[in-house]
Amino acid sequence: MITLYTFGPAFGLPDPSPFVTKAELLLKLSGLPYRTDTHGFSRAPKGKLPYIDDDGTRVGDSTFIRWHLERKYRIDFDAGYDARERALAWSVEKMLEEHLYFALAHVRWVDDANFESGPAVFFKRAPALVRPFVKRVIRGRVKKLLKAQGMGRHSDAEITEFAARDIDAVAAILGDKPYLLGDTPCGADATVYAFMIGIACPVFQTPLIERVARHTNLVAYVERMRARFYPAE
Question: Where is the signal peptide, in residue numbers (predicted)?
Fold first, then answer.
């Protein structure tokens, strides 16, 4: 059986990482049996989650996980869609993962109130004596990463506008379709759902929550995906 290594549910989300949620949704879409394990971070092949262990083969990164499942199990996550539609789905996926993600990280890690109500809880396992130091160091690394990537060099208002354009683009592409490309989910729907619930999570105070809410098609899409893939939650 495939083991998916995760952080575990947090903030009312299946996982605080949209990439972990994406990987789990791909496994759900695949129909393959799997289990989750929240104790594998120290053994992550690329030093991050998610990764899977598939009968001894470890695969890190959500996109490589998808490709592994497609190749080994002959799964076509975009079955029924043509080359243009597949290219569109890839473009949406990369917009969210390579652009919106950094706005999401800024919301959670840079804003003091959001950090304390969100990522700060991850450090509760650290000994009380060193906890403030560990929090400061890790948070500083995230801020440095955001600055190096470029998103962290912008003002809060500019970052919000960047993210809002991404959200609007997803809503426009979705239109009145049940799923991103049409009547059936494609691989990129795993990413879209993970990021929409992540950016609209009420634990974090951001105007982007309202930006998602103003798109009735996105709200309906999120509920449709939740009902289909996480019906017990």
Answer: none
